[in-house]
Design goal:
By secondary structure, this protein is of the alpha/beta class. It is 36% helix and 18% strand. Strand 2 (12-14) and strand 3 form a beta hairpin. Mean pLDDT is 90; it is low at 7-25.
Length: 273
Amino acid sequence: MYKRGLAEYDEIIMMPESKDIIKMKEGKHMMNRKIELLKKIINESSYTVAICGSGMMEEGGYIGVKKQERAYEIEEKYGVSPEDIFTGSYYNTRPERFFRFYKNEMLHYMPQSTASADVLARMEREGKLQCLITANIYSIARRAGVKNVLEIHGSIYNNKCQRCGRDYSMEYVRDAKGVPVCEKCKSVIRPQILLFGEMMDASMITRTTEEVEKADVLLVLGTTLKSEVYSNYIRYFNGKYLVVIHDEDHYEDHKADLVIKDQPKNVLPKIFD
């Protein structure tokens, strides 16, 4: 499925021009070699696509609502699990409880932008990044200046009246007393994000797949090759180099050409050193 070329496990590294295997101990020297390879891969790429996983939010201080400790706190607070309350069913039938949760847990605890987003924006400006795919509903990359972004789970900054189609800001929803309703027709406003259990729009699935298929280099940032969200897209990659940058190990990641075990915010800025 994937090419096995540049690096394996964090113990083997391979130069693209020679494909000679060089074994070395993990450490600063090994990391420096990997960074140099990453620079070479990106600089020589004809079409680079970045996939941004939940680790990109976690490096900004975000704790997902499905994480065990936070999920337990939410269930204690609201009497139901996040998987139950953050759904279209709750939005439709119990909007008061849905928006209490949404404002307090999703809009109050927002991740901070990190150096990763700024570097990705710079890469795009300099022609080193052609598309960014993210399930991050907080639009971190777009707010940092990345233009060609596929926000596959939507964005908290897009909110719409379901009846008349009028658009509303995140601040309008956040600051509304109780359930936010349309000023024009008084219908409940719907955040344009994917709720638990909902299916992605078919056109977004197609666009995401097409971008992965076009990629010469695929950067998998803050997640693994077996990501619940991205694995079905990653399998369409047939380019030159598959790169994983993530601070957690996964047995599937050895199938990538280069694996750097660290948070993206600690790695990406070195591309321009």
